[in-house]
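Allow me, if you will, to draw on your knowledge of protein folds for a short while. Thank you for your consideration; the sequence and its tokens are set out here:
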Amino acid sequence: MRAHPMVGDSLLAAALLSIDVLIFFFEDLPMPPWYLALPADVLVVLPLVVRRRHPLWSAYLVLAFSVLHSELRLGLGAVFCGAIAIYTAVVYAGRKPGALYVVVFVLANVAQAAIGQGTDWVPNTITSTLIFVLCWVLGEYVGARRAYHAELEARLHLLETERGQAARIAVAEERGRIARELHDVVAHAVSVIVVQADGASYMIRSNPELAERAVRTISDTGRGALAELRRLLDLLRGEGASGEPRVPQPDAATLAELAERVRAAGVPVRLDVEGELGDLPAGVSLGVYRIVQESLTNTLKHAGPGASATVRVRQDAEAVDVEVADDGGDRGALVAAGEGAEVPGGNGLIGMRERAHVFGGTLEVGPGPGGGWRVRASLPVRLSS
């Protein structure tokens, strides 16, 4: 019935028509000839078939045919169809058109009753008016419920849309975070492996001992990168709850180990730390580590032979400042990126900028005053008491 409302309305019209037909054939009342009565009965119920699609047209047609039906005194069809027409006009056409229709309907019925029913028109009019008022109240109630359900469905649809949008944003942010993590792990490890492999190829004949040490560094770095990749992939597949112990994320407190690995890869690194980095929030601490890691990785890849790097980390109650500078490499084609400027370079520099901005910090990348390359970052932080 809900999928095909005209079917239900047709059955309703047929039921009302059958009542009038039964009254015509079985009640001992003065009736007009059947060729007048039956068409009048059909005409008064016929507009109900399209009452949902054309509520006002249907209602006014019922009003017009009910006048004829009442004049011929054919039964109850005019009263029932009039009540249904009022309900339909209020529910499907709206309050104002419904109110206008009710006024016209009541005036027409009062005029008809006063003209054709003598002294009985007052009680009949009161009875009909009460029926019509009841239909109006019922229509108001149903219309209000329909409007409430429509508003509720609209809000639910909006909530579903917002939830889907929030989920898509969260997925995009998580993918970006994972991409940065994968880049940090893979780029650093591969850079160390490439540098060590190049050194081993040069030293394999002249200095086998140094070449063997480079190969061991390659092996250790590759195993570490592979373990980190497996950990990230397990998290992506939802296998992080397996029996294997989870490896903690690196943080600013492990910068000395990072500097030592870069020294082993062939770049002298001087590490200067001021403040207690172990007190930093976990996210800021990881961001500091990744910024230093990416900067040293770029030094390994671009600074050239004989270059050295200096890492300075200073932390106070308001912010942690990071500076990584090297003294080699011809990267003057890149432009220093200040606040609001686009960071040149690949995913590594973009990842550093994103990490700094996540915590409301700033990042500057560009040539150093005395040559080489310099990365400066400042991340706001408030230590817990």
Summary: The first strand starts at residue 269 and ends at 274. Confidence is low (pLDDT under 50) at residues 332-344.
